[in-house]
Design brief:
globular; alpha+beta; 8 helices; two-stranded antiparallel ribbon; Immunoglobulin-like; ten-stranded antiparallel sheet
């Protein structure tokens, strides 16, 4: 099965990591306001995504997926079966239009499991074929969870974006205890991944060549790795997590080398996925270290304020008898 290659379109989107931006400048604000603002503010409470406790030994059961306002024609279903220590999920989806419709930075879809407490788990990437259909088979250690699908810049993200395209829907014949997801989970706003498209990029080409599905997945994996490294650089991983970033860049270079030699696409995908995962780790490490640095600087500024007294000077006077109390009489 062939899929229209997005090589040209994504190549334009990734023409320079310097274009990535996590915020707005004064000059860009009015021009980019509509594009980088959150387009779908989602919480599991507001939209009624329920967790299902797929009890062990209950046998397989089905649950549906319905598209959100962002992808209203999308749909799907999953067969879920709980085994000892794991839960098997066999899902299929339809009408998954190209995620780049939400912005050129979005290259793929990811399926997430949400615990009843709202903690997200990345279950894996959803890659649609030329008919905009996809299948996937994954497992999770969770027994009770809800599921959503989001558009993402790469498949190894650790936190879902706010571009939520599908949510699970409990069917009348779904077997399991329904548990509302009590906690609101945090979604990364679009601005986290938004970048300014260079004016020289121009329109997308009218005639895009077709490639095999294996080749398409390899091309997509390499572009996702480039995305991940670009985002990690914006997070200053070259300063706060240089070894992890360097490792990601080596894996990407190997994937590109194999791709240029037309090597086995599995090797290309393997190295590209390793690059994306390592870059995501570098981004997370970098952001944590920056937060720690900011907190340390804030504490230092607070302690350095004029008039700040040591904690010991604010103690209440001693009331016990003895030499110390006698000396203060």
């Amino acid at each position: 099965m062939n899929r229209i290659a997005v090589v040209s379109m994504i190549g334009v989107a990734l023409c320079g990591a310097r274009g990535w931006s996590q915020g707005k400048t004064a000059n860009d604000e009015s021009a980019s306001k509509d594009r980088i603002a959150p387009i779908y503010n989602v919480t599991v409470i507001d939209h009624g995504v329920d967790a299902v406790n797929y009890r062990y030994r209950s046998g397989p059961t089905k649950i549906d997926f319905r598209g959100t306002v962002l992808l209203s024609d999308a749909k799907g279903e999953a067969t879920v079966e709980s085994h000892r220590g794991r839960t098997q999920i066999d899902a299929k989806f339809e009408n998954l239009l190209a995620p780049a419709r939400f912005g050129r930075e979005y290259l793929t879809y990811v399926l997430w499991a949400l615990s009843p407490e709202g903690a997200p788990r990345n279950l894996g990437e959803i890659v649609a074929d030329s008919s905009n259909r996809a299948k996937m088979s994954v497992t999770t250690e969770l027994a009770a969870f809800g599921m959503i699908v989001t558009a993402e810049p790469y498949s190894t993200v650790q936190q879902p974006s706010d571009v939520v395209t599908l949510e699970n829907r409990v069917r009348p014949d779904t077997v399991g205890k329904i548990e509302p997801i009590q906690a609101k989970y945090e979604l990364l706003p679009r601005s986290h991944y938004t970048w300014q498209v260079p004016e020289a990029a121009g329109p997308e080409p009218a005639n895009r060549r077709k490639v095999s599905m294996d080749r398409y997945e390899a091309i997509l994996a390499v572009y996702q790795a480039q995305n991940a490294i670009g985002i990690a650089r914006v997070a200053e991983a070259d300063k706060y997590a240089p070894s992890a970033l360097a490792k990601a860049e080596r894996s990407l270079a190997e994937a590109q080398r194999l791709q240029a030699r037309k090597a086995n696409t599995r090797l290309v995908v393997q190295n590209a996925h390793e690059a994306a995962q390592t870059a995501e780790d570098a981004r997370v490490i970098s952001e944590q270290r920056k937060r720690d640095e900011e907190l340390s600087a804030l504490r230092n500024r607070t302690e350095a304020r004029p008039g700040s007294a040591p904690a010991t000077s604010r103690r209440e006077p001693q009331t016990t008898s003895g030499p110390e109390s006698t000396a203060h009489k």
